[in-house]
Amino acid sequence: MNVLVLNCGSSSATFAVIDPAVPREHVSGIAQRLGQPEASLDWKIDGVKQSRTIAGAGHDAALREVVALLRELGLADGLLGVGHRVVHGGAKFSGSMAITPEVLAKVEECIPLGPLHNPSNLLGIRIAQELFPGKLQVAVFDTAFHQTMPPVAFTYPVPYEWLDAHGVRRYGFHGTSHRFVARQALSLAGLPEADHALVTAHLGNGCSCTAVRNGHSVDTTMGLTPLEGVMMGTRSGSVDPAIIGHVAGALGQPEKKILDALNKQSGLLGVSGLSNDMRTVEEAASNGHVRARLALDIFCYVLAKAIAALVVPLGRLDALVFTGGIGENS
Ligand code: ADP
């Protein structure tokens, strides 16, 4: 039986219809540039891409277009349910949850922790509940896999009251990816389920590494937000937090703007000055572009240090697992 999976972001929504039993992907696609005249619905079936314009469509209209497409493809009926990616589940969820009013309320309570993602994730859930009344809807959290981290790994050395009062701790992200590739690696490498030590490196536009001991996340590089950790496409990863006040003062700009630059204008893009896309950076570096070479060198250096550090909680390393666009290809 098929499942519709939805990842509803602020300006785009990705979707796929999957038969998890095979597993087989019937269709996957993205509704993007939502709310703009150039909004489009792009999808792929068996590697063949198609597209239609959905000018001006917001989330609601775009998801209606997705459902219309699924009807045309004969995939709308007989769905088992809808799976929603929810980025921040705080410390409230340690696994996927069937969505109930109580679960929705808890996801809402996590908005201060995931202000960039949770509101659009919630919007996607609400629209899907309307479009598929009575169908099972499930929330799958980026943070859930990391709820097994011990206090020594998730507690920041900051005033302890911040933890209880404001939820300031390491949560970690990309949990669905880390969990999936760790399991795949186990079977590929023939490692015992009850005794293994892996580091998984998810290297896409966002990048994070996780130490996996016997199927459980024991530490990870991302933190309260997906800004911490290794260098990424546009995110700096870990830097001295005093940079924010220093640069805000020097530029006479609000600290929020500097934080925004650490999220959106840093990483590969910030150092190379060219692109957040690893392919572009690699090509420029091989053509002698000095800052592209430096960006690539820092990326690899920071990543190697992070992987080495994750051997501390593991005590040993049986396998190192790479995934994401960069991890798979570069
Ligand atoms: P997202 O996090 O958005 O899902 P992906 O997992 O698709 O992103 O990863 C995107 C990154 O993968 C980009 O930096 C892109 O340049 C990189 N990438 C994709 N293909 C290659 C390749 N052949 N060689 C190097 N990098 C690649």
Protein topology:
Elements: E1 2-8, E2 13-19, E3 24-32, E4 40-45, E5 48-53, H1 59-72, E6 79-86, E7 97-98, H2 101-109, H3 118-131, E8 136-141, H4 151-154, H5 161-166, H6 175-189, E9 197-203, E10 207-213, E11 216-220, H7 242-251, H8 255-264, H9 267-272, H10 278-286, H11 290-314, E12 319-323, H12 324-329
Parallel strand pairs: 1-6, 6-8, 9-12
Antiparallel strand pairs: 1-2, 2-3, 3-4, 4-5, 7-8, 9-10, 10-11
Helix pairs in contact: 1-3, 7-8, 10-11
Count of helical segments? 12
Strand order of the largest sheet: 5-4-3-2-1-6-8-7
Q: Overall 3D geometry?
A: globular
Largest beta sheet, briefly?
A: 8 strands, mixed
Record field, number of beta strands: 12
**Straight-line N-to-C gap:** 35 Å
Specify the oligomeric state.
single chain
Classification by helices and strands:
alpha+beta
- Overall radius of gyration: 21 Å
Rounded mean pLDDT is: 96
Spell out which ligands are present. adenosine-5'-diphosphate
